[in-house]
Amino acid sequence: MRKNEIRKIAADYNLPVAEKPDSQDICFVPTGKYTQVIDRLKPGALEGGDILHIDGTVLGKHDGVINYTVGQRRGIGISSSDPLYVISVDAKSKKVKTHILLDKYP
């Protein structure tokens, strides 16, 4: 069934969720902080580590690889004149590698 069909059924039964706005968060995480759930299920997921440039230079520190995804550009926590993107996340070594947008340069 489509969402609008489900909403119609809910409205027919006078359920308050019939008009509930769509959620952009994980619905089963009451606080919206999925990192807390993962840290509880996988202790150590919020342990800090290095943020590296692709060439191996340490650019800074992070508060857990769980906070990063490949392709991420915002919220990396590193200041740079060029936009940095996460290119790899290694949970075992607790390293996050970044690089500038490759197609910006010849």
Short summary:
This protein is of the alpha+beta class.
Commentary on this structure:
The chain is an alpha+beta fold and 106 residues long. Helix content is 17%, strand content 22%. The protein contains two helices and four strands; from the N terminus they run H-H-E-E-E-E. The chain has helices spanning 3-12, 34-41; strands at residues 49-53, 58-62, 84-90, 95-100. A hairpin with a 4-residue loop joins strand 1 (49-53) and strand 2. The termini are far apart. The model has no long low-confidence stretch (mean pLDDT 84).
Q: What low-confidence regions span 5 or more consecutive residues with pLDDT below 50?
A: none
The oligomeric state of the chains shown is: single chain
Instruction: Report the biggest beta sheet as strand number plus sense, adding barrel if it closes.
Output: 4 strands, mixed
Secondary structure tally: strands: 4
- The span between the termini is 49 Å
